[in-house]
Design goal:
- The chain is built from 15 helices and 13 strands.
- The strands form 2 sheets. A 7-stranded parallel β-sheet has the order 3-2-1-4-5-6-7, with helices on both faces. A 6-stranded parallel β-sheet has the order 10-9-8-11-12-13, sandwiched between helices.
- It is globular and about 65 Å long.
- α9 packs across α13 and α14 runs parallel beside α15.
- With about 400 residues, it is of the alpha/beta class.
Length: about 400
């Protein structure tokens, strides 16, 4: 009988649009080779039509739809304060889901519990102390570090969140979660060092982000198209594209007037939707297939100024043979070399210059794309990482 893994996620993993879903999707595909995978997910009405797709990868699925009135939302925050749970993830904690997890575990249907992201680890409350199940927490990023970078940029506008010291609270809770786990997974050496410092008795292993290697795309058409891909409801993504359009895009247009920007990703907020008023900026919202957008893109941009973990959007673009211009934050944690695998710039004028260089020099684009694709094949193809990951779970 195959061992059973209960996977708890925030959002359905499939289709794999956005970094979180890509990470979860790759891990679930790997686990499904040797384990019976059971998914419990907080989801939204807009995702429910993807249930059948997810059922193809899991032996069982159960979900709770995240729908609360403003009053219920405030009640969840007050309840979190009363029960000494982190306020930051109160919107993701549902008693109904805690009950589903508890019932599943009480019935002896899981041997390992994988919490995907520290944001789901609040459901550790559903695991009784002394339970035989092994606990694994996959830290897509360290939320304490992520929120600190967001606060520094003023991305988190809630005065309540600021007043209680969000970053400090997440550091406290993530440390507590890590100390309860049998093993913590980190995406980079930097994140692993943080976890080892704060949970010295817990096993910590680096499981790099990876992509299912995509078919190498043909050369794009004749348009000077730029592409930004990401979950737009995620504050650092929204900040990145607003920053790019306000501070970098005008500099590019001075030299490449016909440049066109596609912003692709679910839940674009009003500030991102408003960018279409600039002209030649297309905000698509969620799309069924990203490949056509990559096919027409001449350059993929990653102008991130905050966030954490490592950027799957960079790996995805490189795997498809598209040149990338990124900030240092945007490619943090990846084994990339500036000028060899992608271009890196942190100042608006420098970023604009790198983009213009790629738009006007097909030869440089081809060289970057070839070397970047080779790097993904050697270090970030999910098939390369399958065996070490499954060996790790076997040891757990």
């Amino acid at each position: 009988m195959r061992k059973r893994v209960l996977v708890i996620t925030h959002g359905l993993p499939f289709p794999e649009h956005g970094g979180t879903k890509m990470r979860n999707g790759v891990l679930i595909r790997r686990l499904a080779r040797d384990y019976s995978v059971h998914l419990r997910s907080i989801t939204w009405e807009s995702e429910l039509h993807h249930l059948q797709t997810n059922q193809q990868h899991c032996d069982s699925i159960d979900v709770v739809v995240a729908a609360r009135s403003p009053r219920e939302m405030w009640n969840s925050i007050f309840r979190a304060l009363r029960e000494r749970r982190p306020v930051a993830i109160a919107p993701l904690y549902f008693e109904e889901m805690a009950g589903k997890i508890s019932s599943f575990l009480s019935a002896g249907k899981a041997d390992i519990i994988l919490f995907a992201e520290s944001l789901t680890a609040s459901y550790l409350a559903a695991v009784l102390p002394g339970s035989y199940q092994k606990i694994v927490i996959d830290f897509h990023n360290i939320a304490a570090r992520q929120y600190r970078s967001m606060t520094r940029l003023g991305l988190e506008s809630s005065s309540l969140m600021k007043s209680i010291g969000l970053s400090f609270l997440m550091r406290t809770w993530e440390r507590g979660y890590a100390n309860r786990a049998d093993c913590c997974l980190a995406v980079s050496d930097s994140d692993a060092s943080w976890l080892r410092k704060h949970a010295p008795l817990t096993r910590v292993e680096v499981v790099p982000n990876a992509v299912c290697l995509s078919q190498l795309l043909e050369e794009p058409g004749g348009g000077n198209n730029l592409l930004f891909v990401g979950t737009m409801g995620y504050l650092p993504n929204a900040d990145a594209i607003v920053f790019f359009c306000n501070s970098i895009l005008p500099l590019i247009r001075l030299r490449v007037p016909d440049v066109k920007l596609y912003v692709v990703g679910v839940n674009p907020p009003p500030a991102v939707r408003a960018l279409e008023a600039l002209g030649n900026v297309i905000v698509t919202g969620e799309v069924d297939d990203l490949v056509p957008y990559y096919q027409e893109a001449r350059v993929v941009i990653v102008p991130m100024r905050a966030g954490g973990g490592t950027r799957l959007k960079v790996l995805e673009a490189m795997s498809m043979g598209r040149p990338v211009v990124s900030t240092s934050v945007g490619c943090e944690g990846l084994a990339v070399t500036a000028g060899e695998h992608l271009m890196i710039a942190d100042q608006p004028a420098d970023f604009a210059n790198r983009v213009v260089t790629l738009l006007t020099n097909p030869g440089i684009c081809r060289r970057l794309s070839i070397l970047a694709r080779r790097l993904v094949e050697q270090q970030y193809d999910s098939k390369v990482l399958d065996e070490p990951f499954l060996k790790l779970f076997g040891e757990i």
